[in-house]
Specification:
With 137 residues, the protein is mainly α. The chain has one domain: Winged helix-like DNA-binding domain superfamily/Winged helix DNA-binding domain (Arc Repressor Mutant, subunit A, Orthogonal Bundle). 69% of the residues lie in helices and 9% in strands. The protein has a three-stranded antiparallel beta sheet. Strand 2 and strand 3 form a beta hairpin. GO terms for molecular function: DNA binding; DNA-binding transcription factor activity. Keywords: DNA-binding, Transcription, Transcription regulation. This is Putative transcriptional regulator. It comes from Brevibacillus brevis (strain 47 / JCM 6285 / NBRC 100599).
Length: 137
């Protein structure tokens, strides 16, 4: 019997650990990189939007954002509602982003070595279906 969920979980852990090894010398970890990547493409989001998009509990996202803010990689600002906090990349993070992105791409290329485009297309379709199946109704 195959345990697909276990295999996915193990692969994600291995990938995260490997990405951490690549990113840590540059001052980032994979969980932080996910936030930075998201903010790069979406420019500014509320903490709640980030938490929902990344499927991370609010206290965890708050701790990670606090650390990123201390490191100077993000800026948090109040929204229209005083309870709402917007998050965006700092100028320093925007400047470092290409370096981080290149390191992440190298890691991804290493992980996908020997996987052709047809396999990747199937992989992406399967992951999308799995994500759709697991989303709350």
């Amino acid at each position: 019997m195959q345990y697909y969920g276990h295999r996915i979980s193990q692969t994600a852990r291995i990938f995260s650990k490997s990405l951490n090894g690549t990113m840590a010398p540059m001052g980032l970890y994979s969980s932080q990189w996910g936030i930075i990547l998201c903010l790069h493409y979406r420019e500014s989001l509320t903490q709640v939007q980030l938490s929902n998009y990344l499927n991370v509990e609010a206290p965890t996202i708050t701790r990670t954002l606090t650390r990123l803010e201390e490191m100077g990689w993000i800026i948090r600002s109040e929204g229209d509602d005083k309870r709402e906090r917007y998050v965006s990349l700092s100028p320093q993070a925007i400047e470092r982003f290409p370096e981080w992105l290149e390191a992440a791409k190298v890691q991804e290329e290493l992980a996908l070595r020997g996987v052709d485009e047809a396999e990747l297309a199937i992989f992406n379709r399967v992951l999308k279906k799995m994500n759709d199946n697991l989303q709350p109704l």
